[in-house]
Write a structure and sequence with these properties.
Helix 4 (146-161) runs parallel beside helix 5 (178-191) and helix 5 (178-191) packs parallel to helix 6 (210-221). 29% of the residues lie in helices and 25% in strands. The protein has helices spanning 68-78, 97-102, 118-124, 146-161, 178-191, 210-221, 233-236, and strands at residues 5-12, 22-28, 47-51, 59-63, 83-89, 109-113, 128-134, 165-172, 197-201, 227-229. It contains seven helices and ten strands. The protein is of the alpha/beta class. It binds iron/sulfur cluster (SF4).
Amino acid sequence: MSAYISEIFNSIQGEGPYAGMRQVFVRFSGCQLHCTYCDTPQTLDTECRVERTTGRGDFYSINNPPGRDELAGIIRDLWSPSTRHVSLTGGEPLIHADFIKTLDLEYPFYLETNAGLPQQARKLKDTIAIASCDIKLPEHNSTDNYNELLKNELETISILNQTSHTFVKIVVLPETTKHSISLAVDGIASIDKNIPLILQPVTSDRVPSAGLLLELMDFAGEKLKDVRAIPQTHRMMNLL
Ligand code: SF4
């Protein structure tokens, strides 16, 4: 069993409530969605970039797909005293749930997922320590069947919330409205009002206004107990 991976490196988590924590990032290739703001290629890379020295950004290449033991060795080599999690990111890591389940590592897994594959999430629910689950909005143009995606995302959140520290991330565009986040807010509240919701302004030339963020926070805050607005901080520090 194997999985295509585009990059492996050690950096600082830049999103959500765990921003600032050191992690080894394993960026899996491929995704079933096509969001307008996507910054990761969807192709299956023939080579995987691996950071040689923790934090240096000096990369060498290995052939894809790496074997389970090869990947585990690379992660151990990149681990450092302040590193706390292995971030499984993408692309969409849940596509590779069967492979991830075979990884034999002593470190906690931090999953960054679009949450659109609940059957895959079920396979990993006892493996993941922290789950960052996206909910996409209609204006993200991630899929041709938005209602189906939202249903799947809520099911994934419900599954992972049983066994992992789970939070939800919604990327806010300038055109996002209370109406466009309302089904997501209601869905999260119906699972657990205590699940944190992170409103993340899109990293782009066109950012949402502060007024819009505050308006959306108050709207969501009527139904959820922990609503925060947090931008991508790794971009500010020129990190990977
Ligand atoms: S879910 Fe993530 S990786 Fe997939 S298309 Fe959207 S932004 Fe890109």
